[in-house]
Amino acid sequence: MKTRHLGTNAVATLLAMLLAGCGSMAVDEKSSRIRLASDPPGATAYANGAELGATPLEIAPGDHFASGFVGLSYRYYGKLTFKKPGCETYAIDVDDNLLARDIQARLKCDPDYRAPAAATPPRAAAETYAGRLARIETLRKQGLVSEEEYKNLRQRILDEL
Question: Where do the structural domains in the chain lie, given as residue ranges?
């Protein structure tokens, strides 16, 4: 029975082919950083649903995206998402090629969008109804508000109860 032996060159070629899948990772260090930006700026960036921060910002892809075998290649994978009120969500599947360079997301925004008005902060605890009534009583006694103004202010405070 004849046995076949692979030559040194054939073994080296086979080994190179097997390792080629592992060597294709363009972003292979956690210390490599890329810049995430959006137009308009200020969008919140997410890696696989986890918030990264507001754009523009820098990240190390290895800190936020999983890596593993995709087919025969070992690489990063995941989803990068940008969200901003008044704009459509921008989402993209990432891989080594995308994570090897800075990413600029152009968001489609409604030009007529207006952010909702900020809620009025609640009155301070010291500003209780009893305290407000006492304060306008003091103002009336000092002559700083008329009797009619006092009655109107008092009624407004009581109406809030």
Answer: 11-106, 129-159
CA gap 69, 73 in Å, rounded: 5
CA dist 6 and 12 (Å) reads 10
pLDDT 10s digits, 11-26: 555 445 544 444 444 4
Kindly state the DSSP code that residue 68 receives in the 8-state scheme.
E
Q: What are the helix and strand counts (H, E) for the chain? A: 5, 8
pLDDT tens, 48-98? 999 999 999 999 888 888 888 877 878 888 999 999 999 999 999 988 888
Instruction: Centre a 10 Å sphere on the Cβ of residue 133 and count the other Cβ atoms it contains.
Output: 14
